[in-house]
Amino acid sequence: MNYFLIAGEASGDIHGSQLIASIKQADPQAEFRFLGGDMMAHEAGHAPIIHYRDMAFMGFIEVIKHLSSIMGFMRTVKAEIASHRPDALILIDYPSFNLRIASYAHSIGLPVFYFISPKVWAWKEYRVKQIKQCVDYMFSILPFEVGFYQKHGYSVQYVGNPTVKEIAEASRHFRSREEFLLANGCNAAKPIIALVPGSRVKEIKDNLPVMVEAASRHTDHTAIIAGAPGIDSALYTQVLAGSDIQVIYGQTFELTHHAHAALVTSGTATLETALLRTPQVACYRMNGSKFIYNFYRRLIHGNYVTLPNLIADKPIIPELLLHHCTPDGIDSLLTSLLDDHSQQRAAMLDGYTQVASILGTNDCTATAATLLTTTLAKK
User: Is the entire prediction scored with pTM above 0.70?
Assistant: First the structure.
């Protein structure tokens, strides 16, 4: 069968590549067209129609500035769908773009599958109505989403969480701490503080400076930055402004695993860090004003924004958002986590165990691929 996938960011590229691999196992004759990145291209055997790097616009202002480009991408996708008539459209998160494409695909009678639900439980809950209208099958990767959608009269399937499998597979190939540090030319004498400032340019510009300032206060540790895929090294050079902190690319999981603690931009990376069992502080600076913070708090439903806290429904990791995300604020929390005997460190590790138990060990993409292909076979 022919499958059309859309992933609009780096994490979606990872999940999309795994889903393509699983679909190929279930459907050896599968053919793919997609919007995504290099990892999806590797599994599909050809380049994307549009690379997610060209679509990575973050925030209202950025979207407005690039609105003509975004509309052009939509026209391209609709034309591709209309001319190739895939057997299924598979959408991966990225709701502002994907829900518009879902509406179009539904209007011409294509089955629409959504792998990784938009975070409508956090904000823009009104999108549930659109999802019910134009998404035929929703595969959830977060257990609490099942109950959320049930309240809206919409049935979704929890298929497991892809990060669980990613961490399990990656950890089998981790080197010892000494081998990892030697291979990357790092200082092996000091413990590591991993800095994971995000995968988008604006995230890195906003978050990395405060992370660096906080971590640099701990001279008995070595701060190392996890370089994001697809981000030019010149950006880190610019943001670091003469600092000699090392940037390591393509080894985020292993770096985080070997770190004594981590400063992590809110997002999937907080869950990755939890499953790697590295104590962390979640940081999200952006426009750090109190006004913006209060504005977003009115928009966002629920008490938490990070995945470990949402999954456990309690505060497992500290969340420093916007104007709270300062070097002093980060430092006060980081200091306690660097103490191996602190109550805060022990409680966080216990919380990580609970998060892993809730998620389970189901092979997420294999389950989704099986459900998808068997559903299509019945049509």
Answer: yes
